[in-house]
From TrEMBL:
Family, per entry: Belongs to the DEAD box helicase family.
GO MF term set: helicase activity
Keywords from the UniProt entry: ATP-binding, Cytoplasm, Helicase, Hydrolase, Nucleotide-binding, Stress response
Annotated CDD domains: DEADc, SF2_C_DEAD
Domain Helicase C-terminal: 232-380
Cross-referenced InterPro entries: DbpA/CsdA_RNA-bd_dom, DEAD/DEAH_box_helicase_dom, DEAD/DEAH_RhlB, DEAD_box_RNA_helicase, DeaD_dimer, Helicase_ATP-bd, Helicase_C-like, Nucleotide-bd_a/b_plait_sf
PROSITE patterns, A to Z: DEAD_ATP_HELICASE, HELICASE_ATP_BIND_1, HELICASE_CTER, Q_MOTIF
Originating organism: Candidatus Blochmannia ocreatus
Domain DEAD-box RNA helicase Q: 6-34
Residue intervals of the Helicase ATP-binding domain: 37-208
Motif placement: Q motif: 6-34
Lineage of the species this protein comes from: Bacteria, Pseudomonadati, Pseudomonadota, Gammaproteobacteria, Enterobacterales
Protein name (record): DEAD/DEAH box helicase
Amino acid sequence: MSKTEDSFVSLGLNPNIIDVLHDFGYKKPLPIQTQCIPYLLSGHDVLGMAHTGSGKTAAFILPLLHNINIHDIFTQGLIVAPTRELAIQIGKVCINFSKYMKNISSVILYGGQSYNIQLNALRKNPHIIICTPGRLIDHLNRGTVNLSKLKTLIIDEADEMLRMGFLEDMEYIIKNIPIQRQTALFSATLPISVRKISHKFMRNPKEIYITENTKMCSDIRQNYWLVRGIAKHEALMRFLETEDFDAAIVFVKTKNTTLEISKILEQFGYNSAALNGDMDQKIRYQTVNRLICGTLDILIATDIAARGLDINRVSLVINYDIPMNSDSYIHRIGRTGRAGRIGKSLLFVERKEYNLLRNIERKIHLNIPEIKHPSSKDLITCRLNKFSKKIAHQLHISNDLEIYRSLLTHIKPTKDLTIENLAAVLLKMAQGNRPLVFSSNLNSENKTIQITQKIKKYKKHTITSISNKSAKIKLKPKINGHMMDIYHISLGSDDGVKKHHIIKVLSNKYYNIHYNKIGNIQLFPDYAIFELNKGLLNNKNFKRLSRARILNKPINLKFLGT
Ligand code: AMP
């Protein structure tokens, strides 16, 4: 007896199921399975809270399959899920796990698919129905589905299903199935309101909690990036380019943004596509399949469209727009790090969204570390590395380079073009919309480095000068004979800030700074530096000014030196 058989057998599962688990390489039950399967096999109601990716689908499908009586030709099990994608996914798992169970039948019912296919399957009274609520209600109203002898109801993503919007549908479905039944509810989160509702239609459910932070810590590396310095879409491209990932899902707030971002990414040669609820069902299905089989690498999706997607290739989740609540965050990052694999999640946070970040951290009992966006230098290094790896690979696999070499003389547009120049042109052409170097950004980042070094030098000089009284007199007065204090604010031209905004704030009567006491102002993409007459800001005024905002963003004032 193999190890798989050993551990799953002890749960009491049918040998045909054990065989299929062996095929799938499942070595031992995951915690949610160990805890739920025995209760579900013995007919108990179960309320299971486990994060996505924890193996909860198998936790309810395996005992459901085990309990089906193949000789009873009526629907015995009903699984309801909030989205078509999730219903299809569960349906596939059901088919896979019943591979060795002859004559077991199941059907997936979801909106967007032709009624004929579904009607044909329903006429045969399938043992198991997997569905979205809307299409099931259609069939109930048409009298084309018979749930009068249903034995087990399973609700996946219960937090979503029992919220306003879906709740009415669920109540309607529950009214149309037998009272005497087994009910199982699974969800990544269980808010108190949902828990209360669930108890109304369950009988003494066994509650199973698999804590999410064990998984969060081990399987998913989480970071956040504070939106500053460069625009969000620019940062997105930089992260996508420098992160090592197989497939990625980028979560955005609106359907329009899915289209906007996928268009931008496509323009820059990324293999990406949008996924949102407005898209035709067939296209959504094809898009998800392309991600599964590797012909698509990046999906730009809304929460609802990507709910429950289980794609092992997804090793990176980017929260381009921060989710409005921590539950959505948990759902989103659960799309990666599936079944013990390592995943990575990045969260873009704007300053005004700090409280949402803190809520998420509280919920997952973790501090999410901040990271900087990749600099232009990082990007160039990464592009050059990738490019030279590509060349080395081509060199390694090509055995017809001689032919190309002989063609070189024919395609030289001018006779006097050197081979180096030709190679450079071809390099540029091959790189397309993503240049290997970008002069403007480089300049601005070099400037940033220069100014920081200047300030450091300046401060060092000042400190030594102050400690050495005789040297103090060597400090040069800067403006109109005045020594100047240097201040830094963390807003810059990328935040839309102009010099006049800074002058306006400083000369606000509240801070009482006369404009002729303001010295140089230098604007950089993500910060600005200005000078004020030495000693002009006392402690009280400094505190007041540090609370100021420009374009409704806090300025984060810092004193750099004199
Ligand atoms: P789920 O949480 O149901 O979406 O499952 C997440 C992933 O875990 C899926 O890819 C399953 O194939 C995988 N999985 C489920 N149970 C096991 C197990 N016992 N051993 C290994 N992988 C599993």
